[in-house]
Design a protein that fits this description.
11 strands, Aspartate Aminotransferase, domain 1, Aspartate Aminotransferase, domain 2, alpha/beta, 2 domains, homotetramer
Chain lengths: 346, 346, 346, 346
């Protein structure tokens, strides 16, 4: 049983069906087909606003194309010190912005605090010696599996906008956050002050599909060029559009996310009842972080369970990720194993 | 009937079947799965050499990641003036190389000439005032639908290597060239002096799949980082690997390319027999360039045929692209229509 | 006697005196001193308009910082095929713009033609596959030593502005052009539609001093950051300001340029009278291009005269550059030598 | 009296004399003159090794050109959190490296610790998701006015080299460190494992002159292109070479640095004797950091003394910088003023 990542999972069957259905003969390439336009319209309806959406295949591409609209080459992007853009994108934000630098910040349970940002922000604005504060990037859900409430985002966005910065959200797990908070897409994005959102599907059942959503279409004027010269403009755009159409149809995306979240809740509940296990973060999406004795970790690995230590190879905190296709028996099996091994220690 | 591009076509059914088969539960992401490794091995066998292959989803990504290995930011890349990298990638080569500039050159029927390159090359090498000659990029097949023979490539590669330059091949239509020349992959690549090849599948039946093939693995040492920070590392790499495995299995790729080539040959033969039609280039792959009277172009468009004028909107040269799924009746229909309209003029 | 370049010359004595005078104790660094502000004011008066000026030490820095305001990373900059930015800046324009590409164009006597630009320009505007036309860069005086009249510039600027492009002037020899045309700085710049000017002094008696002049100060908003992160912000800005103040004081700059021009005129007149010599370009600034028999070139080199063949090592066209400190006897000596050697051939 | 920076000072008279002497007629430009070569030779002798030196005009240019040799675009450069490259170069390191990111670290009195680096370093090496550790940059003297001993540098360099990283030294105040430690240039650089050194003169009496010194000449192969395309290649190179020749002649550089250091020592000694004053860092170069009551700071400013609060506008720690031309009476005047005001409080 594999709890390593939502990237180890396969694809929701609806995705494959949608690709098969999209194999319907010649179409205008590069996104000028009817299906690609329908997805654009669907996103506008879903977010209750006019917006510009650009489809890409990877989360990194979505994040850094979005950030490239917000930060000049001499800009600074504030983010959590465990953010995917800070740790796991091999410098892609600097590449796509032409040199902007990240300013990683600590924050409990993966969240940035508006107060801390307010403290940092005025310094250096307008002084040519210093790189210039340009954007704040939040992860929703966060890398610690927590979610920003609409009010949290608003508070941060107000600090940002007051100082001329923009707000980016890495929504690789946006569906999971939405499902957990039971909020509307609009309330968790532009209404709270978000300027650009990476709207992820790849971690939630798609093969490889993401959308960069820009809530002020004027801000997106250069994005077509940026996507093309990044090599991210698909000729057969239907490959991405078909996935996204299926993803949004009949609320599939939220059903998939809700399932993953539910599995995480059960896993957390099961593990929390075991004395040797300590829950590290509140469980608000599809991951569970627990601290275990080293002995127990070794036993689980020997049993064949797969998961990562967090954040380094010597850590006794492990991350357990549930996905759209995690089965209740997988969860029960893991809980049972931990319970059994914990028992052996006494 | 649509002769606009090999990008307007859908997908070979084998591709969808392969994706369905790849949906087989949890796998290690980012290319560390068995299928991704099998494709690597298959490519080594096919090219009869050790090589490093990196899978990406778009031809632009493949081209510019490959070029980024060959040209420093102050480098010059020589290419044909109609090359895709020169005209249709929105500056992506400069982006990925960190600033290298293209030096577009004329050349009959889309081909560069070794003699012309030999004339240009020694100048400025080692002089800090000048951008430094770094690479030659060929398209195989060319944008004019012609193919470089192995001897053509060798001659160019010799000029290149003599002056310390590397050779890149944009093989978006490598399969079509191979099918036309009936040559081995090795003979048309590393044995002729090619250093890096964009091995394309997207234009030949895949959904979106390409491989950057580097014949000297040592040269590829940085490519993993480059692909990741370009946002081109797929988490669910099986999406690309499954396509490529199906593409190579049982010679599917060559069958598809041969079909497209055959359709182009028939189209060319049919059109060439019509007095008002002039073939612009020898037909050696899956495109036919013909010059027609403006009247005739208008009549075909009115009939509903789709194609592009080449290279500008006022041109009376049109490009007709055939694909893996072009039907004989499509070809016959177009030839018949041209014949009919040509007849009306007399 | 050295006719290789205006870069081989030393410094006008006024420059050294100005530096000595500027050594007057502590000053606020980075351009916030009174002298730096005075030069800004002087430039505004000279150009009869409000403007933003940024001082740097090299012509390349001035050119590419200016261009970085005009072209996005996916932009195209049109220039003459012999332009300094095209041939002699080792890719610096791509570096500072983040990837913009040059589109070199032919043009008689070093000049671009408005008609040719008008023909090229509409193509591809707004199409994401293509790099986007962004700017036209003129050299004044040109690399062929000719000058654009105000009407020439206006015609080009009108084409540029009609299509949303900006106009840059590499004015490394702006003083020479002004002196030759006897025009006002305003008439040869913003009144004719120039957006950004590299205002050069280094080739005309300064040690190392240039100004990037931006005629719409709003356009210059990012230039302070760009100069700093390019490493071109001098801490002891008085080093540059003192030179520029002396340069502009009492018309020194025009006196120096006029002298260099006069020397070129005499040289041209002297050489043109010799039968074996062919003037290649009209002489409108401080250079003379002549074609000579190879024999004669060899004889002059043997005599110890120094000059460059243009543009390559096998050319029999040589470039003779006069400077602020070229002496009449230098000119006479060269003319005399050519006459003598030309005589020997008969 | 101005204690703001070594940048507020003027020039040592020897510099102006050297420039006047260099105004000796035509010379081959771009560093191919005899004086430029002499300085190269002098630096080799001084550092007791073969080395490659590239002259530039600003400290930022020296730092980032040097770093561009050491870090790939996906590289990480470790530095102290108060390093000039981290705080005061507006993102120039990312610009010149093509995207490398800084990893600022804390460290007592401005110094990095080898132990802390050893702890951080192995993580992520070779993993494509992560930016790759590439270089460690030290400031000598540090921004806190302390100096690394040769053994400190060796320890850090050993950690660096063990993990495949290179060592860069920002030597804007290298002369001051050398003067304080009474060490040889070689012992404080390549013998201790330094790969690239920014050898500064601008803060120590020059107008604007620095050298990027690369101890392994092979490593410097691309530096000529990098300097040129950065716009930092002076045509009249003698402008820089004359300054550097005078700087090194007869130990002028060490005399100037020693004077500045001595003034700092006297200032520190005088201030430390005053009860309300707290020395913040050991004084090892030409700066003194002291903490004072806010009242006292206000009184000194009212007296007309000039200095900066460190590092922000609300701080009661002030930085007092002495320079090559600080007079004993300036120091005495400041000490006396502090003593007088301190007295009034009691």
């Amino acid at each position: 049983m594999d709890f390593r990542s939502d990237n180890t999972a396969g694809f929701a069957p609806e995705m494959l069906a949608a690709l098969a259905a999209a194999n319907d003969g010649a179409r205008t390439p590069y996104g000028e087909d009817a299906q690609s336009r329908r997805v654009q319209t669907h996103l506008c309806e879903l977010f209750e606003t006019d917006l510009a959406a650009f489809f890409v295949a990877t989360g990194t591409a979505a994040n850094v194309l979005g950030l490239s609209l917000l930060a000049a080459p001499w800009g600074v992007i504030y983010c959590h010190e465990e953010a995917h853009i800070a740790l796991d994108e091999c410098g892609a934000p600097a590449f796509y912005t032409g040199g902007a630098q990240l300013h990683p910040l600590p924050g409990a349970h993966g969240r940035l605090s508006a107060a801390r940002l307010a403290e940092l922000l005025p310094d250096g604005l307008g002084v040519v010696h210093h790189a210039q504060p340009a954007a704040i990037s939040l992860s929703q859900a966060t890398e610690a599996v927590t979610c920003y409430r609409a009010a949290d985002i608003s508070a941060i966005a107000q600090v940002a906008h007051t100082h001329g910065l923009r707000v980016h959200v890495d929504g690789a797990r946006f569906a999971n956050a939405l499902a957990f908070l039971d909020a509307s897409p609009a309330d968790l994005s532009w209404r709270a002050g978000v300027d650009v959102l990476s709207f992820g599907a790849s971690k939630n059942g798609a093969l490889a599909a993401e959308a960069v959503i820009v809530f002020d279409p004027a801000l997106a004027a250069s994005l077509g060029y940026r996507r093309k010269r990044g090599g991210h403009l698909f000729s057969k755009m239907r490959v991405l559009s078909a996935q996204l159409e299926a993803y949004l149809a009949d609320g599939l995306w939220l059903r998939l996310a809700r399932h993953a979240n539910t599995m995480a809740q059960r896993l957390a509940a099961g593990l929390a009842a075991i004395s040797e296990v300590r829950l590290v973060h509140p469980v608000e999406a599809n991951e569970v972080f627990v601290q275990l004795p080293e002995r127990l970790i070794g036993q689980l690995l020997a049993d064949g369970f797969k998961f990562y230590r967090w954040l380094d190879d010597r850590s006794t905190t492990i991350r357990l990720v549930t996905t759209f296709d995690t089965r209740e028996t997988d969860v029960a099996g893991l809980v049972e194993a931990v319970r059994r091994h914990a028992g052996t220690a006494t």
